[in-house]
Design a protein that fits this description.
Length: about 140
C-alpha cells in the first residue's frame, strides 16, 4: 500500500504530531511539579488505576522491563508504589500505587489541562465524533 501524501493527510499528520508534542511537554512539566520524571508519572498513573505486573507495564509503555524495574524502585523509595504478590499467581509480583501514590497521580491528572481546555470548546457531538475517529484510527 502506498503511503498517503496528499496535502490534507500531511496536514493532519502534522497536527497530530503537534498535539502529541504539547501533551508530552505539559505532562513532563506537571510531573516535575511533583518531583517526578515523565516516565515515573506515566507508570504511577497506570498503577493508580490497577496493580499491574511490571512486564505488562513495559509492554504498555513500549520499553524494556529493566527500565520499569528502575522506575518502580524509585517510586517505591518515595512511598508512592509498593510491590505485592499477585493473588492469582504468587510467583508474580504486582506493582501497585500506595494511597499517597494515588493522591499524587490524581493531582497530576487534575493539573493537565492542555487537552481539556480546547476540548471544552467543542460540542458534545464534536467531542464524540473526534473520539470515534481517533478510536477508528487506532483500530479500536
Amino acid at each position: 500500500m502506498t503511503p498517503r501524501t496528499d496535502p490534507l493527510t500531511l496536514e493532519v499528520v502534522e497536527l497530530i504530531g503537534e498535539v502529541v508534542s504539547r501533551y508530552h511537554a505539559e505532562y513532563d512539566e506537571a510531573a516535575a511539579q511533583h518531583a517526578l520524571t515523565g516516565a515515573q508519572a506515566r507508570v504511577l498513573g497506570l498503577l493508580s488505576v490497577e496493580a499491574t505486573p511490571m512486564r505488562r507495564i513495559a509492554r504498555k509503555l513500549k520499553c524494556e522491563p529493566s527500565n520499569i524495574t528502575g522506575i518502580v524502585d524509585r517510586l517505591e523509595a518515595r512511598g508512592l508504589v509498593e510491590r505485592r504478590p499477585d493473588p492469582a499467581d504468587r510467583r508474580v509480583k504486582l506493582a501497585a500505587a500506595t494511597e499517597e501514590g494515588r493522591r499524587t497521580a490524581a493531582k497530576l491528572r487534575a493539573s493537565l489541562d492542555f487537552a481539556r481546555e480546547p476540548l471544552g470548546g467543542l460540542s458534545e457531538d464534536e467531542r464524540t465524533a473526534l473520539r470515534d475517529l481517533l478510536k477508528r484510527m487506532l483500530g479500536n
